[in-house]
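User: Show me sequence and structure for the first protein, then do the same for the second.

Assistant: Starting with the first protein.
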Amino acid sequence: MLLTITNLRKAYFDTPVITVPSLHLEPGTHWFRGINGSGKSTLMRTIAGMLPFEGEIWLNDQYEITQQPIHYRLGVNYAEAEPLYPDFLTARDIIQFVGKAKRASKEQIVMLAEQFGVNQYWKQPTGTYSSGMLKKVALLMAFLGQPDFILLDEPLTTIDDRAAQILFGIIKEQQAKGVSFGLASHQDVGLSELTIDRVFLVENGEVKA
């Protein structure tokens, strides 16, 4: 089993935002559909280990997110829907920092930077970037290292058609290598020619197959 979620509850000020009594994900590509405010981003950030929560999340039946946090986070990568970075840092600074944490090689970093076109501006401070440039930095970092599961939150927002096609190509390459994906989007990623194995509806803080 790729991911097993049990009794997950994430709340803000005692108000539940996402509740998942039980969810089992087989290896593959999963699309989490839902309107803005449905809880998709909270679910993604929780699975990525960015938010505290109640319950358990297991990766590959081996690593529980709170019990083996390092191994878990090496296996799960995440790209935010609307990334923000310190204005004074360059994309290369940020990518190299995350790459070290993800145990990515220099060759992988350079290759991904060239594929996404980030190398054309990554020496400039991120405060000068457009939203599309920031998004490509986030998408690049989601592929660093050797993850088993890559979470992409609203992957198509703020990027142009050319960047979207590049992203689809990289996803397909990783799918062929056995990497699984969780795509959270209100847009129809089913029209992207990507192989989607299972679709979930995220609605009112609940996840339904």
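Switching to the second protein now.
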Amino acid sequence: MTAGDAAALAHARILQVIRAIPRGQVLGYGEVAGRAGLPGRARLVARLLAGNDDPDLPWHRVVRTDGRIALPEGSPGWCEQSQRLRAEGVAVEKGRVKRAPRVNDLDVQIWGPG
């Protein structure tokens, strides 16, 4: 497999994960990378989304790990992402989404949410 083939495969896996994010839910860039089998490649996810031209890709469901929208606050993209998430029922306050605790997260199971 050539480097180009490997890159194309990685991109396809990332896009598949993003398309599978259910309406009204979000994932962090690192979570997308991990689910695509590319742990530690959050920046690759961000670069791929930055160059996205597919209007049907639910890019707005990908946020920073801390729940913040990664685009500059007040920018057209930031406003669009906030609006799209709110339209799906996601609570967005000051550019940060309120995420439900992950049920299979060991820290959440031991220490509780938050």
